[in-house]
Amino acid sequence: MRIIRLLLLLALAAGGGAQALAADAARGAVVARVRCGPCHYLDKPLKKVGPGLAGIYNRAPHIAGVPFERWDESALERWLSDPRKVKPNTRMFLPPLPARDREDIIVWLKSRDAAK
């Protein structure tokens, strides 16, 4: 958490306030590494504890029972907000992610998958 707070302070200082609060893919990469990395490969589609996150944006979910046609901003926001609300019997345990962290992770997933 200290790293995330430090990055946020640096972003605010460098970006001049409101612009720094816009979703930030670079910050999302850091948050994903800390919050998602222990259970998911971030750079390959292989399964770790959970499915790999490489190429996930706009891909159909590989999780049975997830009610989304594809992982887009709306689906990812709902899933990252509360995976057990979307799929009650999921094994994914996710401590609450602040809205800013969710936004940054989603922008990061979207930007890196769009670059391919």
Give an account of the 3D structure.
The protein has five helices and no strands. The chain is mainly alpha-helical. Helix 2 crosses helix 5 (99-114) and helix 3 packs antiparallel against helix 5 (99-114). The radius of gyration is 14 Å and the shape is globular.
Short characterization:
The chain is mostly helical. The chain has a single domain, classed as Cytochrome Bc1 Complex, Chain D, domain 2 (Orthogonal Bundle). 47% of the residues lie in helices and 0% in strands.
Number of E-type strands: 0
Strand content: under 5%
CATH superfamily: Cytochrome c-like domain
What portion of residues is helical? Answer: 40-55%
The chain-level mean pLDDT equals 85
Question: What shape does the CA trace take?
Answer: globular
The largest sheet, given as strand count, sense and whether it forms a barrel, is: none
Q: Total number of helical segments?
A: 5
Q: Please give the domain count.
A: 1
Q: Which spans of ≥5 residues are poorly predicted at pLDDT below 50?
A: 12-20
State the separation between the terminal residues, measured CA to CA. Answer: 30 Å
Secondary-structure element string: HHHHH
Which topology does CATH recognise? Cytochrome Bc1 Complex, Chain D, domain 2
CATH class: Mainly Alpha
Radius of gyration, taken over Cα atoms and rounded to an integer in Å:
14 Å
CATH architecture: Orthogonal Bundle
Structure classification: mainly alpha
Key structural traits:
mainly alpha; 116 residues; 47% helix
In terms of topology, how is this protein built?
Elements: H1 2-15, H2 25-35, H3 73-81, H4 83-86, H5 99-114
Helix pairs in contact: 2-5, 3-5
